[in-house]
Amino acid sequence: MNSWDKLKAIAFDLDGTLIDSAPDLIAATQGALKELSLPSCSEQQVRSWIGNGAKVLMQRALTHSLSEPVSQDVLDNAMPVFMRHYEANLQQHSQLYPGVLEVLAKLSELGYSMAVVTNKPHRFAVPLLAAFNIGHHFTEVLGGDSLEKMKPDPLPLTHLLAKWQLAPEVLLMVGDSKNDILAAKAAGISSIGLTYGYNYGEDIGLSSPDAVCEQFCDILKFVNNSVRVMEHESV
What we know:
EC 3.1.3.18; Rossmann fold; 41% helix; alpha/beta; HAD_sf
């Protein structure tokens, strides 16, 4: 594990980490399946499908409804329907997880550079952050379609390291999914796994993050031990 006292920057996942966006994704998925005249799915099923981006979510939903693998043409035809339903439901039922507002404010006060690294399409991530009045904390927002690859590939994180001219030991990834932890390991940075989000029903500890937290505010137990960042050379 990298030393916590060297941290200067933190990358956060979005869905299942900062915001419980599952209710809106559930409404969008069920609405899309209904419009496509396909059998619906349960709330729990959609929660288990979240984490690999909108296209994979819809692929899983279609596979469930059709009881067979879906062709690329079927998926391509269904995606605009899903995107329209999600745009209509964005911010309707989602909620910030407890402690997010307070912790982000504290980290900003301490001078950390912060980014959102999500597999959600960028055009949905930005307004969602704005709707909950937390977008101003982040100097970078990378969606699943912002670069050529997304988590669990390390590219979004190595992109941040290069753009911010940081060494791996000063960047931390905080997320709820094994995709977050795998990306962090591949990028050579530290990671904190959260137990309350969407991780396909798996214990986040099985992915071996550097630390595991049950609540968002618990990350301060680790991050707050670092030297005040604003006293360091700015990122």
